[in-house]
Amino acid sequence: xxxxxxxxxxxxxxxxxxxxxxxxxxxxxxxxxxxxxxxxxxxxxxxxxxxxxxxxxxxxxxxxxxxxxxxxxxxxxxxxxxxx
Length: 84
Known about the structure:
Layout: H1 3-11, H2 19-31, H3 35-41, H4 53-65
Helix pairs in contact: 1-2
């Protein structure tokens, strides 16, 4: 949503009505419109460039599809202590 419609929804102001108040409130709306502010609100772990989305998704899918191996990731019950 652009700033104009956002100003109308949030503050019920249009650009022609009280230009000084409109400019002040528009500056407040524009202050936190970066992707990082939105990611912070949703506690996102990664902010990526939209042009890199496809490669990032391919890497993350490959990473999460890996199977445990080598002993540490298997967590077999036979390796657990039987007494304390």
